[in-house]
Design a protein that fits this description.
The chain is α/β, with parallel strands linked by helices and 167 residues long. The chain has one domain (2-166): Rossmann fold (3-Layer(aba) Sandwich), CATH 3.40.50. It is 35% helix and 20% strand. It contains five helices and six strands, in the order αβαββαβαββα. The protein has helices at 2-20, 48-52, 93-100, 115-123, 149-166; strands spanning 33-38, 59-64, 77-79, 102-109, 125-132, 142-144. Helix 1 (2-20) packs parallel to helix 4 (115-123). The longest helix is centred in the N-terminal third of the chain and has 19 residues, at 2-20. The protein is globular. The N and C termini lie far apart (47 Å).
Length: 167
């Protein structure tokens, strides 16, 4: 209980620091898209790369939640809250590899507040970051107000096409 409060405070500080220090310059013609979501919405993003018109190898998904929960597709990167240290560092090598990538677009969708996912989103280098409301930390360049995951995905596709066209 005590360590979770410390971790929460540390994550909040690291998120704010990452946003304060955020610098990104797109390198080349990057088409990579990353998704950070929670277990409740994982199935909604399977095959989403086709809707965006990108290759499967340019599409990465991080699922925030406990590995012990059912329904996890092991092809996805899993961010278990236990894998975040008290200092707010990610311990898992797949999560660190996700952070090392440069993304053209980062999509975040959480069914409830998710500090670990927000920390990962804040530290991930991306040309644009799209996410669902509410954005408590100011991470997203585009905050999407949608009543359902389907509506959210439709809005992502619409904004992504506009974003691609202008780049």
């Amino acid at each position: 209980m005590f360590s979770s409060k410390i971790k929460s405070i540390t994550c909040n500080r690291k998120i704010r620091k990452a946003l304060r220090d955020r610098q990104y310059s797109a390198r080349g013609n990057n088409t990579r898209v990353g998704v950070i979501t929670d277990l409740a919405d994982l199935r909604s993003f399977s095959g989403f790369y086709k809707d965006l018109g990108i290759k499967t190898e340019d599409f990465s998904v991080v699922v925030c939640g406990s590995i012990a929960e059912q329904g996890i597709d092991l092809k996805n990167i899993v961010l278990d809250p236990k894998e975040i240290s008290l200092t707010g560092e990610f311990r898992s090598e797949p999560t660190k590899a996700f952070l090392r990538q440069d993304y053209n677009l980062l999509i975040c969708y959480f069914s409830q507040e998710n500090r670990g996912g927000s920390l990962l989103a804040a530290e991930t280098m991306a040309g644009k970051k799209f996410g669902n409301k509410p954005d408590h930390y100011g991470i997203y360049d585009v905050e999407i107000y949608a009543d359902s995951i389907c509506e959210f995905k439709e809005e992502i596709i619409k904004y992504y096409k506009i974003f691609k066209k202008n780049n």
